[in-house]
Amino acid sequence: MKPKYVHDCTHCKFLGNGAYCEKPVDWYICEGPERRTVIARYSDSGPDYSSVTIGECTDISRLELAALAQGLDLTDKEKDLLLQKMLTRHRQGLSITDLNNLLSDTARIGNSDWLSTKLL
What we know:
By secondary structure, this protein is of the alpha+beta class. It is built from three helices and four strands, in the order ββββααα. A four-stranded antiparallel beta sheet has the order 1-2-3-4, covered by helices on one side. A hairpin with a 4-residue loop joins β2 and β3. It is elongated and about 50 Å long.
């Protein structure tokens, strides 16, 4: 698989082709100093892309969900960040232990492997 569109960032890794907002896109991941950024490029023109730093938004963004659905592999830290954001919306249904873990910077919230999109 090759990129359809020109992307000139030397720090980005091409992940594959897919779709976002009903447009064909090339998926990239860019390694940042603390977090990775997902990029959906939809033309050869420089500013024609959408991007989000994984876990940066208050809620999971459409771009993160689209990248996950199309096979983006996440680190355990990224899985925990996204799981924490999803559970925060539904915290009234959590046990006190899970709620305390949710608010902790170090505790794991069960097993977030269900967020993995790797095929077995």
